[in-house]
Each structure stands twice: as structure tokens, then as C-alpha cells.
């Protein structure tokens, strides 16, 4: 048996069944950790089924556990950067292998559901062990962090320290009811509306009705339809994951925050796929800028920041896949961020009108269309 996570009503039925013990434990003030581990194992087996993907997942889990604990031990002995780079590269091998295999005939023999999101968790832990932020890892908590089923296939990408702190916090009955149970159920019901109603209607009665032949009109039509479908589908997945996490006593970070109200592309990336953009911002963008300034690689911080934005979004494009339209999408987003920064710093017109309502409305409209064109590139529709 194999299920699609948050993809059909039978899965939702099983999901609500798993809620019952978690809710009873939460109402009793008992930590749901051990039940959550059992539920995560069971749901992972159902989602992956008796497939090669399950075997690859188990292999990934064992190897990454060994890698994490080996580096945790070694880091206490030395902070040698070459040892760090070796372990960091080793931790990246699963996602690198999957992306390379994705453009070959061997794609189905390498990856499994949710590999990228799980791998980001491990990579983040290697980085923070090197930084000295992680000095101890409790085995069962670590297993739960990696296998936590609500975020298995589609994120959001959580951080170890945040997850561990949340896991070890005692939640009183009233707090669980008001801040976890009710809030979690609200998110799940919104997710049902997003994914099973709005995304379904857009896909069925708009997106699938657009002809395959690429014309200007069809492309514009597809651009709007795909952007809205992607948002409601992906935001629906994320809300399901976050809401389910809340039921299990874990406040997984939000992944979307009204992204189409953004006034510029910098703001957009603080509202869209938030966990991914923050991950790339913290572990690629910020570190590149700091390292560049420390080594005086560029004349000033602005140039360092612009190069970092291009590199960060280029890597994000590669992360989605080693195909032309993903790479172009990454470069497009990086260029949009750079041009936004230049415009806001140097334009007298912007500085004069940026606080006026009419100008902010125009900014939102323009930003929405910059986003939509990026999604059209991302969809691959123009590359048929």
C-alpha cells in the first residue's frame, strides 16, 4: 500500500485517525514525542510503501545518522575547516546525486519522496555543529526530527534547535487547546479549501483547458493560471503540514504569508516558501557576504550582496532540477533581487513616493507580474 501525502481523502481519513491519540495526550499534558515517533514510522511506511524508495530512505537515514554523530565527535576534537568541508560535502551527496540522476534514465533508482527536505535538515545540522551551536544530539529526538511525518514530502524545512526546544517544552492543557489544537485544525481546514477546492478548480477548469501550442495569448493565460494553481496547491500542502505539526505539539514554521501582497521581490521572498528562502539566506547568502567582506573580495557590501543574491538564487534553481528552465528561473530571480536593490537605493522617484498608497498599490501590481513571469519560466511551459 502506498499513499500520496495530503493528496487524497483516504490519506486525510488516516491522518485524522492518527490525531486521536495525539489530541488525548495533548489534553492530558503528556508529551507526544514517543507517540509521534511511532506515528511517523507508520505514516512513512504508508506513504512510501514497500518500494525501492523506502529502502533508499532507510539507507539515507542510517548513513546520515552515522555522518552526524561522527562529525559531532570529531568537532569536539578539532575545528579543521577541511574536515568540515569533507563532512559538509558528504552530507550533500544524496541531494546532489538525485539532481544529477534526474536528467538521466536512472532518476527512479536514486531518489525518494521528500529527500531534498530531509537532506536540508542534515546539511543544516552539519553547519551548526561546525559553528558550535549544536554540541549534543539526543538520539530519539534526532530520529523524530528527521522522520517527523507531517513535513516529510513537502516541508516546511524546520531547524534542529527550534524543533528540539519545542519538543522539550511542557505544554499545559489550556495552551495546547488554544495555541496548538484549535490553531492546527484551522490551518488544516484552510488547507482543504486551498488544495481540494481552489487548486482543483484552477487546475481542472482553467489550467488544463489552455492549449499546448505556445502563443503569446496562451502563455499569458498559462502564466496566471499556473501561478495561482501553484500557490494554492503548495500553500495547501504547507498548511496541512503545519497544522498537523501543531496537533502533535510542534510549531513548525509557516511557509507562506500572503506573498501576492509583496511590494517588491525582496519582500516576496520573505513571504513565499519562507522556510526554503530563509535556509538559503542563512546558509548561503549571509555566509557568502560575510566571508567576502572579511576577505575584501569586493569593493563594498552592495556588490558582495548582489553577487550573493545571484549565486543564491542560481543554486536554488539548480536545487529544483538540472534543466534549462530551472537554471534560468534561478538567474531571473537573482537578477530581479539585484535590480530591486539598485532601484530602491538609487531612484529618487522611489524614495519620494514609496510611502504613498497609490505607489504601493502600483508596486504590488508590478511585483505580482514579475512573480508570475518567473513562475511561467519555472513551469517549463515556454520550453516545450
From TrEMBL:
Pathway: Cell wall biogenesis; lipoteichoic acid biosynthesis. It is a multi-pass membrane protein. It is an enzyme of class 2 (transferase). InterPro entries: Ac/AlaTfrase_AlgI/DltB, DltB, MB_O-acyltransferase, MBOAT_fam. Signal peptide: none annotated. Belongs to the membrane-bound acyltransferase family. This is Teichoic acid D-alanyltransferase. The gene is dltB.
Amino acid at each position: 500500500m502506498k499513499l500520496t501525502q495530503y493528496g487524497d481523502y483516504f490519506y486525510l481519513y488516516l491522518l485524522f485517525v492518527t490525531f486521536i491519540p495525539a489530541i488525548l495526550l495533548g489534553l492530558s499534558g503528556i508529551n507526544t514525542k514517543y507517540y509521534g515517533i511511532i506515528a511517523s514510522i507508520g505514516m512513512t511506511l504508508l506513504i512510501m510503501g514497500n518500494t525501492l524508495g523506502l529502502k533508499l530512505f532507510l539507507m539515507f537515514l542510517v548513513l546520515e545518522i552515522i555522518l552526524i554523530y561522527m562529525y559531532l565527535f570529531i568537532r569536539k576534537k578539532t575545528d579543521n575547516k577541511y574536515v568540515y568541508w569533507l563532512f559538509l560535502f558528504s552530507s550533500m551527496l544524496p541531494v546532489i546525486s538525485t539532481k544529477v540522476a534526474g536528467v538521466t534514465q536512472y532518476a527512479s533508482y536514486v531518489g525518494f519522496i521528500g529527500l531534498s527536505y530531509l537532506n536540508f535538515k542534515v546539511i543544516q545540522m552539519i553547519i551548526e555543529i561546525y559553528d558550535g551551536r549544536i554540541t549534543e544530539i539526543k538520539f530519539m529526538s534526532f530520529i523524530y526530527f528527521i522522520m517527523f511525518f507531517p513535513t516529510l514530502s513537502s516541508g516546511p524545512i524546520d531547524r534542529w534547535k527550534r524543533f528540539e526546544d519545542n519538543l522539550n517544552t511542557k505544554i499545559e492543557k489550556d495552551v495546547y487547546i488554544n495555541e496548538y489544537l484549535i490553531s492546527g485544525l484551522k490551518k488544516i481546514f484552510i488547507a482543504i479549501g486551498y488544495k481540494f477546492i481552489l487548486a482543483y478548480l484552477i487546475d481542472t477548469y482553467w489550467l488544463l483547458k489552455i492549449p499546448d501550442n505556445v502563443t503569446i495569448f496562451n502563455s499569458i493565460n498559462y502564466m496566471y493560471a499556473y501561478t495561482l494553481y501553484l500557490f494554492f496547491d503548495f500553500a495547501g500542502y504547507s498548511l496541512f503540514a503545519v497544522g498537523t505539526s501543531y496537533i502533535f505539539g510542534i510549531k513548525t514554521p509557516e511557509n507562506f504569508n500572503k506573498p501576492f501582497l509583496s511590494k517588491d521581490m525582496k519582500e516576496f521572498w520573505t513571504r513565499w516558501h519562507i522556510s526554503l528562502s530563509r535556509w538559503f539566506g542563512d546558509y548561503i547568502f549571509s555566509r557568502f557576504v560575510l566571508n567576502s567582506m572579511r576577505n575584501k573580495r569586493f569593493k563594498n557590501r552592495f556588490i558582495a550582496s548582489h553577487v550573493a543574491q545571484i549565486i543564491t538564487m542560481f543554486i536554488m534553481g539548480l536545487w529544483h532540477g538540472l534543466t534549462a528552465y530551472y537554471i534560468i528561473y534561478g538567474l531571473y530571480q537573482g537578477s530581479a533581487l539585484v535590480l530591486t536593490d539598485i532601484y530602491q537605493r538609487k531612484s529618487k522617484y522611489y524614495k519620494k513616493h514609496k510611502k504613498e498608497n497609490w505607489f504601493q498599490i502600483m508596486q504590488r501590481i508590478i511585483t505580482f507580474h514579475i512573480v508570475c513571469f518567473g513562475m511561467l519560466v519555472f513551469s517549463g511551459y515556454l520550453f516545450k
